[in-house]
Amino acid sequence: MNTSNLPTPYTVVVPEDKTGARLDRVLADALADLSRTRIKTLIEAGHVVLRASAQNLSADHRVQAGEEYAVTVPPAEPARPQAQDIPLDILFEDDDLLVVNKPAGLVVHPAAGHADGTLVNALLAHCGDSLSGIGGVTRPGIVHRLDKDTSGLMLVAKNDQAHQHLSAQLAEHRIERVYQALVWGTPKPMRGSIEGNIGRSPTNRKKMAVVTRGGKSALTHYRVVQRVGSVASLIECRLETGRTHQIRVHLSHIGHPVIGDPFYSRGLRRALPKIDPQARLRIAAFKRQALHAYLIGFTHPKSGEILRFEEKIPLEYSELMNFLDGI
Questions:
Q1: Do 94 and 22 share a structural domain?
Q2: What is the CATH number of the domain that holds 87?
Q3: Residue 302: inside a domain, yes or no?
Q4: What pLDDT sits at residue 2?
Q5: Residues 265-301, buried b or exposed e (16+ Cβ, 10 A)?
Q6: Residue 317 belongs to a domain
Q7: 156, 195: one domain
Q8: Which of 121, 239, 257, 295 could form a disulfide with 84 if both were Cys (CB 3.0 to 4.6 A apart)?
Q9: Which among 24, 29, 147, 261 is annotated as catalytic?
C-alpha cells in the first residue's frame, strides 16, 4: 500500500533533564529530521498535542518530565517538477537505470530555495515519463543523493522494479560507494573507521554533528591515499551508512575537515599558519567542499550482472591538489 500521502506520526516523551525547557526546542532535539522552524509551524497549526490534555500549545510552552507529546506531520504537497534541458554526463544507461556524474553546484531534487534547475528537472527532460515514481513527485528515480557541492556518481532508477531492487541493495549495504576527499592535515592512523551517531547540532540547527544522545548511527571507513604537500591529504572514504553530511561531519569530528567545506572546516586555523597570504587567497577561491563520489558498484536489478563505474576527480579539484602539493 502506498503511504506517501499519509501523515507521519511521532511520539516524544520528555526526559528528566528537559523539565522546564521550551516545547519547540525539546521536539527539535528529539526529531532530528524536522527543523525548529518546521516544528513551530506544526505547533501553531495544532499538529502537536499533549496526551491526556486539551490545552492549546505554543512554541514557548514549558514542558515537564514524563509528558508525552504526539506530533503529526501532514503529507507534503509539492509542485510537480518541470522538465528542463540541462546537460547530463551519463556514464551508463539502459531501460532500467542510469549512472550519472553529477557536477558540483547541481542540486539533486527540488526543495526550498531550489524550485528548479535540479538534476531531477534534467532527468525529466532526458527520460520523459519513464522515471520511477517511488521517490515521490519531487524525487522521481532518485535512489540516493549527493550534497549540492559534492560531485560524482549517482544511480537513477527508470522504473519502479529497478528502484525497489536498488533501494534494497542500498539498505543492505550492498552498493559500493567510494569517495575521495581532500582534507586538512593527515589522519592518524592512516587507515581506520569513524563511528558516531549523527544528528542536528545542538548549537546550530542548520548543521549536523556527532551527538552523544539521539541521532542516527553512522560508520565511515577511510584510508589515506597520499599526502598533499605539508598541509593536506587525499583520503578515500567508504560508507556503511548514508546520513546527511556523513563524511563531512565525521572528518571534521576527527579534526581533518574537507577543504573548502563552508560548514565543517573546524581544522582550518591549525593549517593556515603554515600557508602564506597569497596561497590562502588561492585556497579561498575554491568555493566547494573537495569531496567527490568517484566509484559506485552494484548488481544490475534485471541481469544480475555486477557493474562498477569510476569517474576521476573534476579538473578544479585536481588543480587545487597540484597547488597544495607545492606548499
A1: no
A2: 3.30.2350.10
A3: no
A4: 43
A5: bbbeeebeeebeeebeeebeebebbbbbbbbbebebb
A6: no
A7: no
A8: 121
A9: 147
The count of structural domains within the chain is 3
CB atoms within 10 A of CB 194: 20
Classified as helix, coil or strand, 199 is: strand
Phi-psi region of 142 (alpha: psi -120 to 50; beta: other; left: phi over 0): beta
Per-residue model confidence as pLDDT tens digits over 119-147 = 999 999 999 878 988 777 788 999 999 99
Mean pLDDT across the stretch 165-189?
94
Long-range contacts of 196-202 (CB under 8 A, 24+ apart): 196/250, 196/253, 198/243, 198/244, 198/245, 198/246, 198/249, 198/250, 199/32, 200/28, 200/29, 200/32, 202/29
Q: Residue 325 falls within a domain, yes or no?
A: no
Predicted confidence (pLDDT) per residue in 63-72, tens digit: 999 999 999 9
The answer to the question of residue 3 being in a domain is no
**DSSP 3-state assignment of 36?**
helix
CB 27 within 8 A of CB 13: no
Q: H/E element holding 294?
A: strand 291-299
The verdict on 105 and 159 lying in the same domain is yes
41 and 94 part of one domain: no
My answer on whether 188 and 283 are in the same domain is yes
Predicted TM-score of the model (pTM):
0.75
